[in-house]
């Protein structure tokens, strides 16, 4: 009576390990950028709930950049020009749109585009 062996070979195990390692390395590169994005969304929600009545666009940008420091968002990630107001379905919306370039391997990079709008209470004062 012969017994039949079953399981994965050493070569098969190494191939599976290489694929899992590749995706784990990719996740290690991408997860911090998404974690940073969630900090941006949290700071935007704080601004939206506090309201912007009587503040200028520069005041709102300055306040948002200040709140982003508490959320561990890198200063080079979002520039003040990435922060704008737009008219949405429910009134004024705070809109942040930015790109993040994440180096991966050699000359291969990930380009991540983040775009978020949050309704705000109140109206922005015109620039003076």
Write the topology of this structure.
Elements: H1 10-50, H2 57-70, E1 83-88, E2 91-105, E3 108-119
Antiparallel strand pairs: 1-2, 2-3
What this model shows, in words?
With 128 residues, the chain is α+β, with helices and mostly antiparallel strands. The chain has a domain at 32-119. 43% of the residues lie in helices and 26% in strands. The chain is built from two helices and three strands, in the order ααβββ. It has helices spanning 10-50, 57-70, and strands at residues 83-88, 91-105, 108-119. It has a three-stranded antiparallel sheet with strand order 1-2-3, with helices on one face. A hairpin with a 2-residue loop joins strand 1 and strand 2. Helix 1 (10-50) packs across helix 2 (57-70). The longest helix has 41 residues, at 10-50. The mean pLDDT is 88. The chain crosses the membrane at residues 7-28. It comes from Dyella psychrodurans.
What is the helix content? 40-55%
Regions with little confidence, pLDDT below 50 for 5+ residues:
none
* Rg over alpha carbons: 23 Å
The residue-averaged pLDDT reads 88
Proportion of β residues?
Answer: 25-35%
Largest sheet entry: 3 strands, antiparallel
Note the total helix count: 2
From the spread of the alpha carbons, the general shape counts as elongated
Order of SSEs = HHEEE
User: Count the strands?
Assistant: 3
Distance between the termini: 93 Å
Structural class: alpha+beta
- Could you give the order of strands across the largest sheet? 1-2-3
